[in-house]
Amino acid sequence: MDPDGEVFVQQQSVVESQRGGDRHGAGALHGLRWIREVVFRHLVDPEEVAAIFVEPIQGEGGYIVPPPDFLPALAALAREFGIFLVVDEIQTGMGRTGRMFACEHVGVTPDILTLAKGIASGLPLGAMIADAARMTWAPGAHGNTFGGNPIACEAARATINLLEKGLMQNAEKVGQRMLRQLQAMQARHRLMGDVRGVGLMIGVELVRDRETKEPATVERNQVIQRCSEAGLLLLGCGQSVIRFAPPLTLKPAEADRGVTLFEEALAAVESERTPRR
Ligand SMILES: Cc1ncc(COP(=O)(O)O)c(C=O)c1O
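# pyridoxal-5'-phosphate complex -> structure
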């Protein structure tokens, strides 16, 4: 496959969806049709494609939540052509969305699943999960300088234990609370576009105009800066999205405080902005 192919399919989906009335549904499903009708017909023989890599919810791309039938349909497409489906859960995994893995929300079991970030609560660790048929390699087939670090592995065991004992449920519960509050804020703030997310993986898109969805990138950066000065650390993603990806230990009162600080920063940036004619 063209090395940029997967990225392009994702970008195409996003661009299409942002143009359409349907936020991400039409674009994501258009992306699937595009793989079948353009990529596999004109660009690459599916026989030559080893794997399709996909994030169940786009991270850096803008915290894009696809419609629930997108991943199952992509899995079916991969199966139809005998291609591995690799689900990258490096941002979405380890309880962040309220389930251990985001693909569980839509009943998809990938051939290969990749993990990192939250897996060891900040200690450096990554993991690739697949069934025994794919993971039984000859000795020496795979080497890694830092692989198997016992301290990082122990941190991962402790993390998994905490997730199973309540942090996953906390992510779901506090995430729903934050999502509701942020969605309610939309009516009060003209810079707010789409608000979306699952569990404690929430994206707030800032737009200059809700009709055209012109990205408010400068304003997004100003809001992040103001939040940082007020003690709330947020990170951008996509063109003009602010991501909320707090620790899964977040308490409801802390979430409320974060939402309040965000609203204050947003209101300050809105009031400084020259109104559009
Ligand atoms: C979704 C996703 N996949 C893969 C990576 C790369 O992960 P690593 O830095 O562990 O190699 C990142 C890093 O930000 C990511 O967000």
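# post-check
Confidence is low (pLDDT under 50) at residues 1-21.
The first strand starts at residue 51 and ends at 54.
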